[in-house]
Amino acid sequence: MRLIKILILTIAIMTISGCNKYLDVVPDNVATLEYAFRMRSTAERYLATCYSYLPELGDKYRHPALYGGDEFWLSSDKTTWDNWNIALGLQNTNSPLMDYWNGANRANDLWEGISQCNIFLENIDIVPDMDGYEKRQWAAEAKFLKAFYHFWLLRCYGPVPIARENFPISASGEEVRVFRRPVDEVIDYIIVLIEEAEQDLPLELLDDNLDYGRLTLPIALGWKAKILTYAASPLFNGNIDYANFTNKDGELLFNQEYIADKWKKAVDALEEAIIAAHTLGYALYEFEPTSQIRVVNDSTKQKLTTRGIVTDQWNQEILWAHSSSTTKSLQEWIAPKALAASQTAHSTPNGSTAVSMKMVEKFYSDNGVPIDEDLSWDYNNRYTLREATASDRYYIKEGQLTAVINFDREPRFYGSLGFDRGIWFGQGNYDEEDSYWLQLKRGEFGGKTQAGWHAVTGYYAKKLVNVTNNNTTNSSYSAIEYPWPLLRLGDLYLLYAEALNELDGPSDEVYEYLDKIRVRAGLEGVVASWKNHSRLPNKPTTKEGLREIIHRERTIEMAFEGERFWDLRRWKTAPNELNQSIRGWDVDQEITENFYRIRVLFEQTFGLRDYFWPLREQDLIVNKNLVQNPGW
């Protein structure tokens, strides 16, 4: 396996030559560890190398969770996308898609990243022109990155080896043929690393302009809490589906006993992380009008809040974002090709990323409850047509026909989704009373013109497109390149509500943190919404009912941010959600009544094997101590 090669070669004198970002600072024929750590400036660049292995989630090709699940869908000419091929069920053992184990098929080699962190930790103390506190801080950053890479591998592969340190060059072949370790052992190791890092990470950055993306204590606390929530979740906590998953010596790799105390650890860690974030001024984001965007209508403000949570770079809700993973290309593939007839000749954006009808139906009604539970919402006729009136004008173009499913939905629906006849505020037009609106039927300026360059379901992910982007010319799309968020406060609030409910059931504190998210979204609190509008008014009062509500709230609030893919797995609800058809409107049609017909684009399947990536067959041949994931 490639891990063996990496662990041995990274200790050799020429080890650093494998990293292009580091080669820039090393003269020809002098690529030695002594040179790398001879002064502060070269050591800092080596630390940047450790950061460079972070998954590039702002890249449309490299985010497994955006295109690998059931939120986004592409046209049939995009089958070269490794991440989308996961959604298509094409994962394999010969050349695994998004292969973080070997650094192949659009994935970074995380074992190599861990090895680079180990080298840094082994050598940072020899740098002569650094103070001790700074050495400790940089070591803490490397420790956290090492922990994060182990966690990413755990999330992808389940039980993985632990690379505590690099093997010496003299290590025997048998010594480097590592075993996979039980998931609890891996998680414990990750938490120990993070807690070591916590001791020396700064509370905040000294220079935001120079250091954006560098690690701080709130980031470490937040991710520790998130990892402990994963550890407490059904996938990793008493998972009897893996009762026979063992190493070759019979060692069990998944614990078989549910441990409630894991939720207590998650609750305590989340509380600590949230308190730290609050103390340092982090808060839920809300859009504030600017000199460019002088909106006054609450409906428009609410929509821009939903979009700005992600796209307003480095806002007060974002604890950590990947500063080297920006999103211009991703936005070009998400934004509609044309918002006006004058833009039809533009080459960018191309609007090739669609949102599944399943996700469209996940959002609440304007009463803050699921549309199939709402006492007053016309669920059975949701695919029929209705004409928009003046009261709909901030969401749907007045006088236009669209489907009932697009009416009377919560504000996040309109902030997250673009749809036929729906308002698309921004992109150079900031007139609330005369905004752009989408015309997506075939033959219209936003409709299908070829195999790609259109949303195959008739829905766009407006949430990920910055409101100030603009089609400046027919070949230039001006886009705000916001860094991809890796952790935000709203995520921690929802995890905290989930962990509290799993530990002790419904409580005022669970409702409080759910309602912080709901109030920001323009909705009533969870208890009042269900009591007044749901056909299941007591649902929030039971642990099981509130669990379902929390899962739905996370699905909506974190939509298109790469969380649902992993949440469905850790909750073990993926077989229910991912054994369904991918559906959308019939976008090949010109006539309104024909366009608004549901068509099935794909029948997704999900089984036990799909919880984790497979190991490459070649790795199993090289290292006889490795075992394959079940089902592969």
Strand tally: 14
Strand arrangement, major sheet:
1-3
Largest sheet: 2 strands, antiparallel
Q: Over all CA atoms, what is the radius of gyration?
A: 25 Å
The tally of helices reads: 25
Helix/strand-derived category reads mainly alpha
> Hey, roughly how much beta strand do the residues contain?
5-15%
Oligomer description: single chain
Query: What is the share of helical residues?
Result: 25-40%
Give the rounded overall mean pLDDT: 93
What is the overall shape? globular
**Poorly predicted runs of 5 or more residues:** 1-30
What is the CA-CA span between the terminal residues? 17 Å
Main location: membrane
Keywords: Cell outer membrane, Membrane, Signal
Domain RagB/SusD: 317-632
Pfam families: SusD-like_3, SusD_RagB
Commentary on this structure:
By secondary structure, this protein is mostly helical. Among the domains are: 298-485, no CATH class; 490-579, Alpha Horseshoe (Serine Threonine Protein Phosphatase 5, Tetratricopeptide repeat), CATH 1.25.40. It has 25 helices and 14 strands. The protein has helices at residues 2-9, 20-23, 33-36, 40-51, 64-67, 82-87, 110-123, 132-157, 173-176, 183-198, 208-211, 217-232, 261-279, 298-311, 328-334, 357-362, 411-416, 489-504, 508-520, 526-533, 543-557, 564-570, 574-577, 592-595, 617-622, and strands at 72-73, 318-326, 354-355, 385-387, 401-403, 417-419, 423-424, 436-437, 459-461, 470-473, 476-478, 483-488, 581-585, 598-603. The strands form 7 sheets. The chain has a two-stranded antiparallel sheet with strand order 1-3. A two-stranded antiparallel ribbon has the order 2-12. A two-stranded antiparallel ribbon has the order 4-5. Helix 4 runs parallel beside helix 8. Residues 1-30 have low confidence and may be disordered. Residues 317-632 form the RagB/SusD domain. This is RagB/SusD family nutrient uptake outer membrane protein. Pfam families: SusD-like_3, SusD_RagB. InterPro entries: SusD-like_N, SusD_RagB_dom, TPR-like_helical_dom_sf. It is found in: Cell outer membrane.
